Each structure stands twice: as C-alpha cells, then as structure tokens.
Amino acid sequence: MSLFEERQKRIDDAIALREPDRVPITAAGQCYPVYNAGYTVADVVYDFDKYAESIIKYATQYEPDAAGGGITIPGQGPVMELARPKNLVWPGAPDGRISVNSTQQFIEYPVLLEEDMDLFMEDYTGWMITKGYPAVSGLFEPLADWDFAGQHVDAYSNRLMAMLSTPAAREMMQTVWKASDMLEELGNRAAQLNDKLIEMGFPVTGGGMALTPFDAYSDFYRGTLDTMMDLYEHPDVIIRFIDRNIEYVLKSITEQAKFAPGKWVFMPLHKGMDSFLTEQQYKDYYWRHLQMMINHIIDVGMVPFVYTEGPYNSRIKHLTEVPKGKVVYSFEEVDPVYAKQQLGDTACIQGVFPVYLLHYGTKQQVVDEAKRLIDILAPGGGYIFSTGAGYDHAKPENVEAMFDTVKTYGARK
Predict the structure, then answer these.
(1) pLDDT tens, 72-93?
(2) pLDDT band (50, 70, 90) for residue 13
(3) Residue 59 and which of 145, 222, 278, 413 are 20 to 30 A apart at CA?
(4) Full-model pTM
(5) Residue 151: is its pLDDT beyond 80?
(6) 88-89 and 105-106 as β-strands: parallel, antiparallel, unpaired?
(7) What is the CATH number of domain 3-72+183-409?
(8) Which whole-number Å values give the CA distances from 95 to 81, 84, 91, 120, in the listed order?
(9) DSSP letters of 227-266?
(10) For position 148, what pLDDT does the model report?
(11) Degrees (nearest 5) of the Cα angle 182, 184, 189?
C-alpha cells in the first residue's frame, strides 16, 4: 500500500467511525507554513509560487495525513487591487492598513439598508446589481447608475446600449475580464499544486465550500449587530431570505460535486455558537438549513466538513441528527468528553486542540494535551487530530512535538 493510500485510508476510516492504525492528523496551520518557509503573508498573497513552496515544505517536513492550504487568497493580491473591495483588507495592499504578516481582514457593515428591504425582497437581482455590488466593490460602482426601469424588451435599444457602454461601464468590463483571466490562471495553478501534493503521497481533502443562509445574511448583507435587531424587528425578511437562499446553496453544492466528487465541503459556522442565538432561534433560523445542507452534501457524494466557530456545547444535540459515519465536525471549542459521548457513534470529531499552547505553551504541555485528547476521542475510532483553529507564530518545537505525539501515542495499541 502506498503512502497516499495509507493516509487516505486513515482518514476514510475515521470518517466512517472505524479505528485506523493510528489517529490521523490534518493540522494544516494557517500562516505558520508561510512563516516556516521564510516568507511574509504579503509575499504569498502576491506570489502563488511562494505559497506553493511553503505548502510543499510544510507537508514534507511534518508529513500530515492530508495536505492543503492555509490562507484563503494566495496569489490574489493583484486581483484585489483591480476589484478594490470595500469590505476586505489584505496584507501587502497599497494602503498598508494591516501588517504584511496579518491574514486578510473582513470589514463588516450593513450592505442592505432598511430602506431598501422592499426592493431586496421583491427584486433581488435588481438590488444586487444596482445596490449590493457597488456597495462592496469600487470596481462595480458604475452598476449603481444602471436603471432598467421603463425599458422594453427590444432587439435594438439605443437606451440599453448607451447605458451599458458609458466610459465607466467599458472600463469596468475590461477590468472584469482581466481579473477573471487572472483568477482562472490561479485556479489552474492551485489544481497543479494539489496534483503535486497527491503525487507526493498526501491526500487533499478540500474541494468545496458552502455557507448557511443565516450566516450569509449576517456576514454579507446586514452585519452582525443589525441582524440581531432584525431577529426582532424584521424576522419576516430573514425568513424569506434564508428560505430562498437555501435553494441556491443546494444548487451550488450539486455543481461542486460534478468537479470534486468525494471531496470535503467546508462549512464554517459563524453565528451558530453557544448563546449567540436562543435555542428556538437556532432551530428556526440555523439548524434546519444546516441539516438540509449536510444531507444534500452526502446525497451528492461529498463529505460535509462542518467547522464550529466558538463554543458549541449546547448545539451538539442537534449535530447528532445526521446520517452516521458521513460527517466531520471540527470544533474550535467544545468539551471533548461530552462531544465524544454525544457524537461518538454518529460523526467524526476533529479539532479541539488549543492553538495557544502551540504559541505560548511548553513542549511538555503540548505533549500532555495531545495525549489527553487522544485518550478521550480516539477509542473506537471517529477522530481526526487537528487544532481548534489555524496557528500562525507557533513555536516550531511545539508543532514538531504535536505531530510526533500523535504519530507515536496515537498508534493503535
């Protein structure tokens, strides 16, 4: 059996709730591979080759059971400069607002204004074109002047062609085409990196992404604070949005399965944590759609990879309501004993290891905590070792201790 097959089998066994030859480890880090290769985050945001080099070095040095990326926008700095996003700041950007060693930072603000809610619900496409995109991107500001009202369906419309051919519109479209070509090239290079990692013997699990409708509403349309008010002042708007949006999410998952069968669909849960929503709100606005997404991902032949941001103890009872041996739940913060008790015969558990130990702890503390989690979560299978979140400026000796402990102590007795 090849190294690739050995590693893939460990992961497959863990997902299927079987006990592999040893606990698999997939701790990919976040910016740590970049620093480990001697680069800044800005370096890899503007140079995909440096990003690929850092990922390959990390995989070669630590030999995880699955390899892949850390930062989410490698090589995309030039594209960001063309798009001029208003809700994203990235390292290396001309304005220098954040450190060259920071990850990209999302700027949250209400894009959907209360006075536009009727338009948003009645003409979503019109709102997106003339309100939404101009509000989040300098590139798309010319769209705010597009007005289709009063225009007729006509094979030859002077008004329509004039509106779509203003100097600003022409410049926008030329920039869009340039950015699109750049993104296509980056996509090809990312695929080549994945092929290289597989050739080296490392499974690459990631293949798709999906966001719950409530998180989409809160993250991109209204912002966190306004969404909390909307739960009481505009619940009808939230319900109409999430019920409509889930249709697009499910279609997107179906499309992703055509290009990445068998791969994992990453689902970061931003607003589902303990105490963020009441129990009833979680059931009504969050879980019912998340459950639909999980079931659909399984139905199309992919693996739901659910990352629970923040503490998640009170939500675990809902997470049990999924097909057995088909789901990976990666926890940032949870009681591992309770998680194993509730999910041990239902879903694969990942994460939990506290990243602060890699940054600030001693080598012995890392070893002790890794052993403790293995003792709790490994028996009977269904466990993939990973950190609760990405790690950046970790001590190399601590990262090495973590990997060594899992590979020795985590072996089947």
Answers:
(1) 899 999 999 999 999 999 999 9
(2) very high
(3) 413
(4) 0.95
(5) no
(6) antiparallel
(7) 3.20.20.210
(8) 10, 11, 9, 33
(9) HHHHHHH-HHHHHHHHHHHHHHHHHHHHHHHHHSTT-EEE
(10) 78
(11) 95
At 184, is the secondary structure helix, strand, or coil? helix
Q: Residue 300: CA atoms inside 13 Å, Cβ hemisphere, count?
A: 23
Residue identified by tokens 């309770």 is 338
Q: What is the Cα–Cα distance from 145 to 148, expressed in whole angstroms?
A: 10
Name the E strands within 167-311.
206-209, 264-269, 303-311
Give the residue carrying structure tokens 């970790």: 394
Q: Residue 63: exposed, middle, or buried by beta-carbon count in 10 A (0-12, 13-18, 19+)?
A: middle
For residue 413, is pLDDT > 90?
Answer: no
Does residue 41 surpass a pLDDT of 90? yes
- Rg (alpha carbons) of the chain, rounded to whole number: 23
On whether the CB atoms of residues 265 and 304 are closer than 8 A, the answer is yes
Q: How far is CA 102 from CA 125, 356, 358, 402, in A?
A: 35, 17, 18, 24
pLDDT at 149: 75
Percent residues over pLDDT 90 in the chain? 90
| Closest C-alpha among 408, 366, 404 to residue 387 | 366
Domain boundaries, the chain: 3-72+183-409
* pLDDT at residue number 411: 94
Of 313, 64, 80, 23, whose CA–CA distance to 206 is shortest?
64
- Distances in Å between the Cα of 151 and the Cα atoms of 59, 119, 131, 141 are 57, 18, 19, 21
Q: In the structure encoding, which two tokens stand for residue 342, read together?
A: 């509730």
Q: How many Cβ atoms are within 10 Å of 309's Cβ, its own excluded?
A: 19
